[in-house]
Amino acid sequence: MLAGIVSLVVAILGTPVAIRVLAARGYGQLIRDDGPTTHQTKRGTPTMGGAVIIIAVVCGFLVAHLTRGIAFSASGLLVMLLLVGLGLVGFLDDYIKISKQRSLGLRSGAKMAGQISIAVLFAILALEFPDGRGLTPASPAISLLRDTPVVLPAAGFVVWALMMVAATSNAVNLVDGLDGLATGASLLVFGAYTVIGVWQFNQSCTTAPGPSCYEVRDPLDLAVVASAIVGACLGFLWWNASPAKIFMGDTGSLALGGAMAGLAILSRTELLLVLLAGLFVLVTLSVVVQVGWFKISGGKRLLRMAPLQHHFELKGWAEVTIVIRFWIISGMFVILGVGIFYAEWVATT
Question: Model confidence over 284-322: pLDDT tens digits?
């Protein structure tokens, strides 16, 4: 709770400061000419607001530990590595877009190299630092609600973690197209991981041994990180909701997507993330289907525009309507995912 409250306060008070600073420097959003025409009114809105989210999360995480005298865990620090590291890659991408006044920032090769470097470092370190029980932050086994019998070799796990980090960070980036959409949907997913982390801590095999206990190294610290992200997103959403006064940019979307993957990997719920982040999966699939259909059909489009939210914009839906309905869809996926997580625990009790 302390981590969430501190990050909320930092975000809600720090965002207007960031808006003034970014606006004074002319760090405004560039708008694609081939996008919905309604987006042209957003040209010049301050971007790179994801930096505020990252700073708020770091503050919440630090205050929660330092004021309670609790040692930092390897798991919590690894998720923070993804959040800050990928946020830095996104920041460089945003900065180049603004300074060069072009819609593309980092070249695709450089951006991919940055994402790969952070993800690989995370994956390698996640298999280190065993605790007194021999548990490392991550497990080489692919997980659904717990570890499955499918165990990957170390190199295979690195590739698997890299795929997850790349998929989630790019998925959040695709959803981040309407005011408050990615922020609100992310908030719901991280809220689910706060609940999951607390539940796993209360049912840990160290404190509540039994057939349904969880073998997760640092579940409570994962909940602290997730709670801090919830608070930061909530505070940022105050200013990012329609009409947005600031956008998170790639700085925020890459950071939040990476943190999602990190929490899923370290809480042993990797495949459950597909359901919890169902909205992000749908939007990503809309792009894949659109591109695939365009190639197969010889230039025809299945959707008016991809990602999916822009298809509904071109159909005449109001932006606020799309955002709220997509939030509802995201909430339904989250409720279903948490429900399945709890039902599995009940079934094994």
Answer: 999 999 999 989 988 889 889 999 999 999 999 999 999
Question: CA distances (Å), 36 to each of 40, 182, 304, 307, 341, in order?
Answer: 8, 18, 10, 12, 39
Question: Phi and psi at residue 120, in whole multiples of 5°?
Answer: -65, -40
Does the pTM of the predicted model rise above 0.85?
yes
Helices (H), 127-218: 154-175, 181-202
What span, in angstroms and rounded, lies between the C-alpha atoms of 29 and 46?
6
When pLDDT is averaged across residues 207-224 and rounded to a whole number, the result is 93
pLDDT at 349 (0 to 100): 80
Number of residues that this document lists for the chain: 349
Instruction: With beta carbons less than 8 A apart as the criterion, state whether 229 and 50 touch.
Output: no
Distance CA 181, CA 230 (A): 14
Cα(148)–Cα(313) distance, integer angstroms: 41
- What does the alpha-carbon distance between residue 144 and residue 142 come to, in Å, rounded to a whole number? 7
pLDDT given at position 29: 63
